[in-house]
Design a protein that fits this description.
The chain is of the alpha+beta class. The chain folds into two domains: 165 residues, Jelly Rolls, CATH 2.60.120.280; 108 residues, Homeodomain-like (Arc Repressor Mutant, subunit A). Helices cover 44% and strands 24% of the residues. The chain contains ten helices and eleven strands. The strands form two sheets. Strands 2-1-11-8-5-10-3 form a seven-stranded antiparallel sheet, with helices on one face. The chain has a four-stranded antiparallel sheet with strand order 4-9-6-7, with no helix packed on it. A hairpin with a 2-residue loop joins β1 and β2. α4 crosses α6. The longest helix is centred in the middle third of the chain and has 23 residues. The two termini are 42 Å apart.
Length: 280
């Protein structure tokens, strides 16, 4: 996976792409305008403060961008999110002009989670052709001033960002077995977290049907059944070898409902976890 970081309150955080997608879901923001800009080599525009948040996409060339003292390199391999109220300056790298497109937006006041909207972050672009084609269509729509075009623009940006973020977090797998191995590794490292078929679908950029099909094809169990069996195996060790209580073991493997956990345990092992604990 590509390392992605976010700067917020002068601290570095790893981006949770699922949270990022949820934050920029439909109705959480409103597109204000889309603009294309060109900055020439050795022509200084000085430093100024941003008054809107924006997604910045490089069309050609590259530049060193300073945002509140932190330096980012803008090029076609990544996009940069800039939030409002930041001091920004540009320094063109190389002899070619730096051309870029900004998608400006404002946050919907009803949005609950705004960790990313209030932050500066950058992410790798997996498919440059997809980005350039999408931006071309978005820019054409933004040039129209009628109400219908404004609605269309919002829809285009919503779809574009959702697809972009999904592509940014996904990687290509050489085979179904490689994809399966990655999913199993993820489950076994994150079994204590909430994991659903939808979680895996979003994480790997595949449909829920395809993920379920691949899992069953090679393991003869569905992904969630594998998760449950793995959790039960871990909980049995916690009870038998480490002396956990039923409640502690339940919570340790991701179940807040102790009674539901007990039912799953008995279904898998034929005895309730309390009996295993009593024996120990």
């Amino acid at each position: 996976m590509v390392e992605k970081h976010i700067k917020n309150l002068d601290k570095d955080f790893e981006i949770d792409t699922n949270d990022l997608i949820n934050e920029f879901s439909n109705n959480s923001f409103q597109v204000i305008r889309v603009g294309k800009f060109v900055k020439e080599k050795n022509i200084s525009t000085g430093s100024y403060q941003t008054n809107l948040s924006a997604f910045m996409f490089t069309i050609s060339g590259s530049a060193e961008i300073k945002l509140d003292g932190d330096t980012y390199i803008a090029n076609q391999s990544k996009f940069i999110h800039v939030c409002e109220g930041k001091q920004i300056s540009f320094n063109v790298i190389g002899n070619n002009p730096f051309t870029y497109i900004n998608i400006y937006y404002v946050r919907n006041d009803k949005s609950k989670s705004v960790n990313y909207m209030n932050s500066i972050f950058e992410m790798e672009i997996k498919n440059k052709e997809f980005v350039l084609d999408s931006l071309k269509n978005i820019l054409e729509t933004s040039c129209s001033l009628d109400i219908t075009s404004k609605i269309k623009l919002q829809m285009q940006v919503n779809i574009f960002l959702k697809d972009l973020l999904k592509k940014s977090k996904s990687r290509q797998y050489n085979s179904e077995k490689e994809l399966l191995g990655s999913m199993i590794e993820y489950i076994e490292k994150n079994y204590m977290k909430h994991i659903s078929l939808k979680t895996l679908s979003q994480l790997y950029g595949e449909s829920t049907n395809r993920i379920s099909y691949i899992f069953y094809k090679y393991t003869k169990v569905r992904p969630i059944d594998y998760l449950i069996k793995y959790r039960m195996g871990i909980s049995a060790r916690l009870l038998d070898e480490f002396g956990y209580s039923v409640k502690e073991a339940s919570e340790a493997v991701g179940y807040t409902d102790e009674f539901y956990f007990s039912r799953l345990f008995k279904k898998n092992f034929g005895v309730p976890p309390s009996k295993l604990k009593k024996k120990n």
